[in-house]
């Protein structure tokens, strides 16, 4: 049985490297540093700095939970890491938090184009979509957000994701009848999240969605209190014109949207 634990500041570098390995082929990861593809060493450094900043900032304001795995003290990463925004998290992107978390170093190394992609395209897009989607729900302040959940390739299939989800739902989310919100950056992961009660609500894009390569798609998924269907699901899908795609990215029939 996987041992789930809350990670602390002494763990943040290994937690970040875990996410670097987990999202090595991820569309969002590639989009954020695509301008550095001809400088692979710098690209990897910037990718790692971004994960370190994400982890550290959510340790300051939020929660980072993981499965370290056997002999983790002698390895450069853990097995699985998840990052969460809690209902009482406020101003996680305030100047002091971002400075302490290392975003300034990332901003300098990634250059003007990288700053645009990270701080404008990603941060602004995600924030604006969350506000737009959740504005309809009077209980939106009672919400947990799953920011990242990733396992290293060797740790996949070991039940770590199930263990972390069960741990969070049992100990934090379900006792308070909280909503849970996430953005899936891979269509193949949508069925996995559906097993825990999440349902697709809307899509969002980094870059131009009509571009051939330079873009990244995410699908917003919401789990209602105690795993029930979010009560604004159909209303939001209709308002956003959302059509659920299959794993290839092709849109399925509109009759599937309300299921």
TrEMBL record:
SUPFAM superfamilies: Acyl-CoA N-acyltransferases (Nat). It comes from the Eukaryota. This is N-acetyltransferase domain-containing protein. The lineage of its organism: Eukaryota, Fungi, Dikarya, Ascomycota, Saccharomycotina.
